[in-house]
TrEMBL record, chain B:
Coiled coil: none annotated. The keyword Transferase does not apply. Pfam families: Amidase (PF01425). GO terms for molecular function: hydrolase activity. This is AtzE family amidohydrolase. It comes from the Bacteria. InterPro entries: Amidase (IPR000120), Amidase_dom (IPR023631), AS_sf (IPR036928), Carboxybiuret_hydro_AtzE (IPR014087). Gene3D superfamilies: Amidase signature (AS) domain (3.90.1300.10). PANTHER family: GLUTAMYL-TRNA(GLN) AMIDOTRANSFERASE (PTHR11895:SF172), TRANSAMIDASE (PTHR11895). Residues 5-418 form the Amidase domain.
């Protein structure tokens, strides 16, 4: 799912931020990249954990519930 | 005392003490006194004075969720469902409480409203994100409060302020009328200074709400009738592995004391704890970032400085990572279910340490240096990640004058068993939640 050794947070932020409409100056980009690096570090045990094909995502969508 | 007298006493305490604690962000004296005057003396919660984390709608004031951005929002048109249920039962809401902005934090070092101070030591944090909810109860300004818990935000303040709190099973209590943070993980629940009071409040909060599409509990399972049922016949174990990681002697000792009092001699290991904690971290990061992306595009500098970069990073996470994290979470639930077939209650630390000084950035535990803020949730995040119910029980004077909490973790939908165990610990004199000594007069 992820190779933490090759994942480049700075390059990723530089590419993705404009794609979702975020305009970030270079200093801010560096700080967001550092924050992303921490997310990757803490999230790695999940990303490295293989799950069987039949394990479904947890959230339940209830088609019988609607809000006005 | 009548409901009006209770409210008057609470308002006087808030007037006297809140400047030191900074738990309240709004005090609603006029409303509270008017509602107290209408309380029926025989109502189940007649005269109980409470307050709510400021992400719950309270009619007439903006629901700020600890933010600057929402301070100019339109006032809420009506109370959220949990406040409506409490007040219908005779309780009275006296105000809104401090929190980490948008519930993203474990310390309530809110730069917009000021840091919330721990009543047991005003130089220390009250925990978060429901820090005001924990501190207001511990300081005796209110008898109970409402909070939310996505990764530990009820259990961490319960622990650091030395009070009882329940994070129910995911989907038990309705979230209608509260500002969301991470829909996949958000829970709501109460705090109080005794297991019995917590049970009374929890029962009133239960019930289906067709407006909450994430509520899974279709019925009501009262805990009060069986509260004195004891723990005979229950299988109780300590959680090992991940839950025996870095922590202070105070945390380790509290878990040992509770385990001994409950007769828990076995230790079981849930091998997926770290992976589920990681999954919860990724889901939180992504859903939180995505929720706030519209404001992040135009005014990210108006967000709390502690969370700006984290929210921005979260808004960029690859969808494949988040989808995988949701499947890891499901696998973790299945692995835990196998353990819980044998055990009714699992015991784990709530926080790795007692409350730390406001402004502290790092923790060093068992020789391991780690960032303080995310690490406060080391032992809570895996449990909420799979939605299990938890009653947090307090041990006073765990490290000097500071309290610490222990998690009693149950099977899904079996909150009643946890309340019984909490009551046993309370009757044994091990767990209690008196008003913090400096505020006890």
């Amino acid at each position: 799912m992820i190779d933490a050794k090759t994942f480049d947070p700075a390059a990723y932020v530089a590419a993705m931020a404009p794609a979702v409409g975020l305009t970030l100056p270079p200093e801010r980009q560096a700080r967001v990249a550092a924050a992303l690096a921490l997310v990757v570090k803490i999230g790695a045990p999940a990303l490295e954990h293989a799950v069987a094909e039949d394990v479904e995502p947890a959230p339940v969508f209830d088609p019988g519930v609607s809000r006005p | 005392m009548s409901a009006v007298e209770n409210v008057q006493a609470a308002l006087a305490r808030i007037e006297r003490d809140n400047a030191r604690v900074n738990a309240f962000t709004a005090v609603l004296a006029e409303r509270a006194l008017a509602r107290a005057a209408k309380v029926a003396p025989d109502a189940p919660l007649a005269g109980l004075v409470f307050a709510a984390k400021n992400l719950f709608d309270i009619a007439g004031i903006p629901t700020t969720a600890g933010s600057k951005i929402r301070k100019s929002a339109a006032p809420a048109a009506e109370d959220c469902i949990l406040i409506r249920r409490l007040e219908a039962a005779g309780a009275v809401c006296v105000g809104a409480l401090n929190m980490d902005e948008f519930a993203y934090g474990f310390t309530t070092e809110n730069s917009h409203d000021g840091a919330c101070h721990n009543p047991h030591d005003l130089t220390r944090i009250a925990g978060g994100s429901s820090g005001g909810s924990g501190a207001a109860v511990a300081a005796g300004m209110v008898e109970a409060s409402l909070g939310t818990d996505t990764n530990g935000s009820i259990r961490v303040p319960s622990s650091l302020n030395g009070i009882f709190g329940i994070k129910p099973t995911y989907g038990r209590l309705p979230r209608t009328g509260s500002v969301p943070f991470v829909a996949s993980l958000d829970h709501v629940g109460p705090f109080a200074r005794s297991a019995t009071r917590l049970a009374e409040i929890y029962d009133v909060l239960q019930g289906p709400d067709p407006m909450d599409s994430c509520q899974l509990a279709k019925g009501v399972d009262p805990v009060l009738p069986g509260l004195g049922g004891g723990i005979a016949g229950l299988n109780i174990a300590k959680l090992g592995g991940w839950f025996e990681g870095p922590m202070t002697d105070a945390a380790r000792g509290a878990v040992a004391s509770v385990a001994q009092a409950l007769g828990a001699t076995a230790t079981v290991s849930w091998s997926m704890a770290e992976a589920v904690r990681a999954a919860a971290f990724l889901i939180t990061s992504s859903e939180g970032g995505a929720l706030h992306l519209p404001e992040l595009r135009t005014q990210y500098e108006d967000f709390e400085p502690l969370t700006q970069d984290r929210l921005l990073a979260g808004s960029l996470l690859p969808a494949a990572w988040v989808n995988h994290a949701q499947r890891v979470r499901a696998a973790g639930r299945d692995a835990m279910a196998a353990i819980q077939r044998e055990f009714d209650i699992l015991i784990a630390p709530a926080t790795p340490t007692v409350a730390t000084p406001i402004g502290q950035e790092e923790l060093v535990l068992d020789g391991v240096r780690m960032p303080l803020r995310p690490s406060m949730g080391l032992y809570t995040q895996p449990i909420s990640g799979i939605g299990l119910p938890v009653v947090t029980v307090p041990i006073q004077n765990a490290e000097g004058a500071m309290p610490i909490g222990v998690q009693l973790i149950g099977r899904p939908w079996q909150e009643d068993v946890l309340f019984r165990a909490a009551r046993v610990l309370e009757q044994a004199g091990l767990c209690s939640a008196p008003v913090a000594p400096a505020f006890a007069s």
